[in-house]
């Protein structure tokens, strides 16, 4: 049964203020090709680079940017590195969810004092443009949060990176604006552990909860709780498997990722029809729901600004809550393993996560699992 906690119902002091998502770092097998993919398919722009030319000997990183979204794509340059071991175990995937804060030392020391495991002690990084302070903690699996303090820095990205420009090849942006939320998949009976971690260590609140009655089909089920920081700029839904007749998408993820990790990144747009049409023209593949889904959309969600025809053509889903409505669509996995994918979302007032679409969406995922032979 879905439950929600509105901010005014539960006053909690925000002891760890977070300004927003600073960057997301993926460990990938080939950073150069991955950067080309995100530019070509998703419309990201060349931004910054670090590697042999900047003095690194063990890894190479390309940074791509679109509006407020920054992705770092990092690959090892030698065998036997921690980055390489991570890729060998998990495949390409998200290692770092970096959080922009005013005081990285305070955030780190507070988190560690409240029970977080240290990933990186506070470190001051300097160049001619000023200094950045970074420090990190572990969260679920091998995923980490790095606190980034950049109030004394006016360079391109971070010290150690140089500006990366590609004058001959810069595909246009696709209208992606910022990270709306990021979903983590955790193991059996581990959801509440990580809910308590975010509550106790980082001061987040549980704003929505979905049980296996809300998120289930004839064959599979999962449970989810949505964690949000004090100002609502960071939202981390946390999923765990639930008992079902067949293997759920979370179980499939855990099997192929070989552990807990980030399942998907939801990125916002102001015009989902235009964005999805553009992404499809560039080869991005999306999950599809049956056309019958659209026969009852207006009965279920009421009047919306958009025509149903383009939504049906593109496979965009619609849902409504007390605040308004939202439109959303999910890509197929963007890596060889059936693990990480992206959600494209446009909010027209709604603050929820598409509960009314869960059944249609998860049935679409099950059809993909059936094709992969991983549903049973």
Descriptive report:
The chain is an alpha+beta fold and 376 residues long. It has a domain of 144 residues: 2,3-Dihydroxybiphenyl 1,2-Dioxygenase, domain 1 (Roll), CATH 3.10.180.10. Helices cover 24% and strands 34% of the residues. The chain contains nine helices and 18 strands. The strands form two sheets. The protein has a nine-stranded mixed β-sheet with strand order 1-12-13-14-11-15-18-17-16, sandwiched between helices. Strands 7-8-9-6-2-5-4-3-10 form a nine-stranded mixed β-sheet. The longest helix has 15 residues. This is 4-hydroxyphenylpyruvate dioxygenase. GO terms for molecular function: 4-hydroxyphenylpyruvate dioxygenase activity. Its cofactor is Fe cation. InterPro entries: 4OHPhenylPyrv_dOase, 4OHPhenylPyrv_dOase_C, 4OHPhenylPyrv_dOase_N, Glyas_Bleomycin-R_OHBP_Dase, Glyas_Fos-R_dOase_dom, VOC_core.
- Output the CATH homologous superfamily of one domain: 2,3-Dihydroxybiphenyl 1,2-Dioxygenase, domain 1
The total of beta strands comes to 18
Instruction: Specify the CATH class of one domain.
Output: Alpha Beta
Strand content: 25-35%
Please name the CATH architecture of one domain: Roll
For the CA atoms, what is the radius of gyration?
A: 20 Å
The main β sheet shows up as: 9 strands, mixed
Query: What is the helix content?
Result: 10-25%
The helix count comes to 9
Class by alpha and beta content: alpha+beta
Order of H and E elements: EEHEEEHEHEEEEEHEEEHEHHHEEEH
